[in-house]
């Protein structure tokens, strides 16, 4: 989430409250696409602080969420231009720059009084260097599309395919709707099941209706909500 998505983020939160999804992780981008920072939107910062007070987790989600000043290799075209629309910020970031951005994110969270356990790279794409750097900076976990990575002396991978929709274009909406409808059936009985919701999903009513349906079905099956922090700590 970022300042430009405040309206959608609040609306999604209200619906999750109605469904009884009490625990959740809120992924926050400090300076979305090199534009306004979180500090430029005190309303969002206040809302997030209230969410933390209610037991929700705030997670660092990249820093800029774009690939500005990063050269694209031919072997990366699919991941950078098709799978994600130029937002694989941490896919091949120089280690020094990676550390600088993570540290700036930590400092911002500390300034705002937010606890910080985890980091999630945009589109779950990152180089292996990230797994070495994160624990040195105090991060407890990160995630990939296919699982949760618990960091520490003994790194541990918890398999968990995330359901994630794409609202950027008609073909993405159609494909992600069909893929996730099939995937939602496949993950029944799995522990944990991860649901990724983006602000743009709320603007596309067909997608949002489907996400709402999937959440309702999982809750009806007896699933209980959890944040990454609480799950990793359990």
TrEMBL record:
A GO BP entry: carbohydrate metabolic process
Protein name: DUF2334 domain-containing protein
């Amino acid at each position: 989430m970022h300042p430009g998505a405040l309206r959608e983020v609040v609306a999604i939160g209200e619906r999750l409250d109605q469904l009884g999804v009490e625990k959740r992780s809120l992924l926050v981008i400090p300076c979305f696409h090199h534009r306004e920072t979180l500090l430029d939107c005190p309303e969002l910062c206040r809302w997030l602080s209230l969410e933390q007070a209610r037991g929700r987790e705030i997670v660092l989600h990249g820093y800029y969420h774009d690939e500005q000043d990063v050269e694209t290799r031919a072997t990366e075209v699919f991941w950078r231009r098709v799978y994600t629309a130029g937002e694989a910020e941490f896919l091949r970031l120089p280690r020094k720059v990676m550390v600088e951005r993570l540290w700036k994110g930590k400092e911002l969270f500390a300034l705002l009084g937010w606890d910080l356990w985890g980091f999630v790279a945009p589109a779950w794409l990152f180089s292996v260097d990230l797994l070495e750097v994160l624990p040195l900076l105090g991060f407890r976990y990160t995630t990939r599309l296919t699982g949760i990575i618990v960091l520490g002396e003994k790194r541990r991978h918890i398999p968990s395919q995330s359901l994630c929709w794409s609202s950027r274009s008609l073909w993405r909406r159609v494909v992600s709707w069909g893929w996730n409808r099939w995937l939602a059936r496949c993950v029944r009985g799995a522990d944990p099941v991860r649901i990724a919701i983006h602000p743009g999903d709320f603007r596309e009513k067909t997608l949002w209706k489907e996400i709402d349906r999937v959440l309702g079905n999982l809750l009806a099956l007896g699933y209980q909500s959890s944040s990454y922090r609480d799950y990793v700590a359990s």
